[in-house]
């Protein structure tokens, strides 16, 4: 395959631009809920399964604990989550939603619906986009592993 080095032909740039546009749209919408986009992602994971360890959250979000821990600290200071030592292992910290964290779920659902309406794309296109994005991540992870 010949290298086409034009910017508008780069898959990586299309992904980057889409990610920036998506994150900006969420940033604006989430401001009313007092959440940043990374905090919203943590909340999504915890609404799905409350009581995850920092390690489990990192695995789900593809983040290391050095990135995730300060994020969780800010969320704890905001009263959205609390941290607890898990069992007998002092190194394992479990993150649990507070009542305030649980209460944000309905507002987040409204935000999600409003952003999907703003996109105005067929559901099939969104599902295909998600599938393709996951394929890109998986392919790059496989390449890094070898």
Automatic annotation (TrEMBL):
Cross-referenced Pfam families: MarR_2 (PF12802)
Stored InterPro entries: HTH_MarR-typ, MarR/SlyA-like, WH-like_DNA-bd_sf, WH_DNA-bd_sf
PANTHER family: ORGANIC HYDROPEROXIDE RESISTANCE TRANSCRIPTIONAL REGULATOR, TRANSCRIPTIONAL REGULATOR, MARR FAMILY
Superkingdom of this protein's organism: Bacteria
Record protein name field: MarR family transcriptional regulator
Compartments it resides in: Cytoplasm
Ranges of residues in domain HTH marR-type: 8-138
Main localization of the protein described in the UniProt heading: cytoplasm
